[in-house]
Backbone:
């Protein structure tokens, strides 16, 4: 955990992620961070980037039990419970096959983030419901006018 917290001090924010969180917040949509990293590392990173107030909940590794980590659904189910959200009304944006697998097990929409070469095919093969190549795509989707 100490090494994760140290790494969080120099980790780079994904372009468009702050905009996505801000637009979701502006629309009244709750945001939870779901991570296999430690809670301390995630909160350190969010606080460093000034995003702590935009995440209503952090569901991250708090125990040394690997069965509680993704691809298992536990962390997502924990976030859904905390937000009092139905799985069918939620989505997980993730860049790994294990994110897609966890989404499927939890019953939430799996949005694959293909941020590197080769991920598009892997995320598609894993069953992602939607694949984006930039967070800006998702942020822009939150600002489009709703259809009548």
Residues:
């Amino acid at each position: 955990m100490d090494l994760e917290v140290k790494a969080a001090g120099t980790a780079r924010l994904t372009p468009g992620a702050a905009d996505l969180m801000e637009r979701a917040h502006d629309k009244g949509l709750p945001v939870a961070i779901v991570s296999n990293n430690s809670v301390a590392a995630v909160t350190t990173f969010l606080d460093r980037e000034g995003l702590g107030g935009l995440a209503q909940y952090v569901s991250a590794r708090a125990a040394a039990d690997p069965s509680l980590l993704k691809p298992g659904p536990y962390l997502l189910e924990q976030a859904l419970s905390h937000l009092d959200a139905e799985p069918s009304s939620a989505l997980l944006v993730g860049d790994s096959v294990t994110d897609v697998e966890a989404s499927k097990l939890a019953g939430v929409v799996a949005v694959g983030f293909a941020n590197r070469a080769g991920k598009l095919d892997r995320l598609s093969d894993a069953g992602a419901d939607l694949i984006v190549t930039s967070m800006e795509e998702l942020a822009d989707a939150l600002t489009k006018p709703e259809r009548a």
The two ends are 48 Å apart (CA to CA). The chain has a mean pLDDT of 93. Residues 17-26 form the longest helix (10 residues).
